Amino acid sequence: MAYTRGSNANIIVGAAALFTHNDGELTEVDLPAYEETPGSEKSFKDTLQDDAAFTNVGYTMNGLELVFQPDFGEVQVDQLLDVAKLYKQGMQVNLNTAFAEATLENLLVAIAGKSADLTAASSGNSYDTTLNLSAGDIGECPVERGMVAVGPGTGDCAIGDQIERIYVAYRALSIENVTVSAKRDEPSMFEVSFRLLPNDSASYGKIIDRTIPVNLS
Q1: What pTM was estimated for this model as a whole?
Q2: Nearest-CA neighbor of 93 among 19, 202, 213?
Q3: CA–CA separation, 122 vs 113, rounded Å?
């Protein structure tokens, strides 16, 4: 086989659409099926948009980052100046992004608030949405939410070779500080870091490269 430098079709550029699961932790059965009926195929982000169980966070800034942080222990012996063996003793995965749409719904997700903390009510001609900044209680379980992001994948833009990359996180928990601001020269946005936790099958989630069918309309 002749030497090739590489393939520009494998370079991924572009942002992802991010969705949260409204019912907390995400399981495999919660994910909707691909819509691939001939003549009515859809990108998975359109499928999620039409599913009432998922909410699109809208615009994001600084993209989407998945950070894998393994932790290794060391075994040192007298006869070597370096370690003789490394063994894996821990693992941490984080999903980082920034919500550019400063809605109370997005703030609720960013601070890992309960759905009951967000209420909507109408009074006369006004309509109010209120986020209760609850201090919580001792022993209260943290709020986990499943997350799905759909972005560009490898491949080119030719019909039948459109690949989207789907990121699925079963359990995501916001653990970092979240700042709410109102500044003259900067947009108000919520920078958020989600700690991903494994499910009972020891899986954080999965990444799928899906080729959209050729008949996509």
Answers
A1: 0.88
A2: 202
A3: 22
The string of DSSP codes covering 110-153 is: HTT--GGGEEEEEETTEEEEEE------TTPPPP-EEEEEEEE-
Tell me whether residue 2 is exposed, middle or buried, using C-beta atoms within 10 angstroms of its C-beta: 0 to 12, 13 to 18, 19 or more: exposed
Token pair listed for 97: 């992004």
The residue extents of the domains of the chain are 36-73+86-113+141-217
Residue 162 in contact with residue 211, Cβ under 8 Å?
A: yes
Closest by CA position to 112, among listed 12, 11, 199, 24: 24
Locate 62 and state its tokens.
């600084």
Question: 178-213 pLDDT, tens per residue?
Answer: 989 888 898 899 999 999 999 999 999 999 998 877
